[in-house]
């Protein structure tokens, strides 16, 4: 079944999505297995394979082996922490960085995603966040545009 969205959701806060779906975000072990399966079926170097710690948590430093970039993540969700990306060196990361679900009010908490059953809604949002994360890493890895300024 395909989820249909009647209004663009691209500009909503990723924090609110992670907050609302944090209990549905797959563990690191699940995401790692999915990435390994995808890497076997595809030769795309853009696939990021998470590095997992114990209990399904992410290690605080994640790296993309193909590009040499590393960045800090929230250990409970694996989501990147902005401004922590480094090239060919390991960033200093907070080993206990977690999402703060109680600190952020979710404006979309009661908003239904029309045409999308609850299980598919969680899968869609998780997939969207993964795609945005991949886009962010690719943007970081792209050379800066040159020009006068």
Automatic annotation (TrEMBL):
Protein name: SPARC- modular calcium-binding protein 1
Domain of life: Eukaryota
SUPFAM superfamilies to which the protein is assigned, alphabetical: Thyroglobulin type-1 domain
SMART domains: TY
CDD domains linked: TY
Residue span(s) of domain Thyroglobulin type-1: 25-93
Keywords: Disulfide bond, Repeat, Secreted
Cell location: Secreted
Composition bias type Basic and acidic residues, residue spans: 96-116
Region (Disordered): 92-116
S-S bridge residues: 63-70
Taxonomic lineage of the native organism: Eukaryota, Metazoa, Chordata, Craniata, Vertebrata
PROSITE patterns named in the record: THYROGLOBULIN_1_2 (PS51162)
């Amino acid at each position: 079944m395909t989820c249909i969205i009647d209004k663009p959701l691209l500009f909503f806060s990723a924090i609110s999505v992670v907050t609302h779906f944090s209990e549905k975000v797959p563990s690191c072990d699940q995401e790692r297995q999915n990435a390994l399966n995808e890497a076997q079926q595809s030769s795309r170097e853009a696939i990021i394979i998470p590095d997992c710690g114990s209990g399904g948590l992410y290690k605080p430093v994640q790296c993309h082996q193909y590009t040499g970039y590393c960045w800090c993540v929230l250990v409970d969700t694996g989501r990147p922490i902005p401004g922590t990306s480094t090239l060919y060196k390991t960033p200093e990361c907070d080993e206990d960085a977690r999402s703060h679900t109680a600190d952020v009010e979710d404006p979309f908490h009661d908003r239904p995603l029309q045409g999308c059953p609850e299980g598919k809604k969680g899968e869609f949002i998780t997939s969207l966040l993964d795609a945005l994360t991949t886009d962010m890493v690719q943007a970081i890895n792209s050379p800066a545009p040159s020009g006068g300024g």
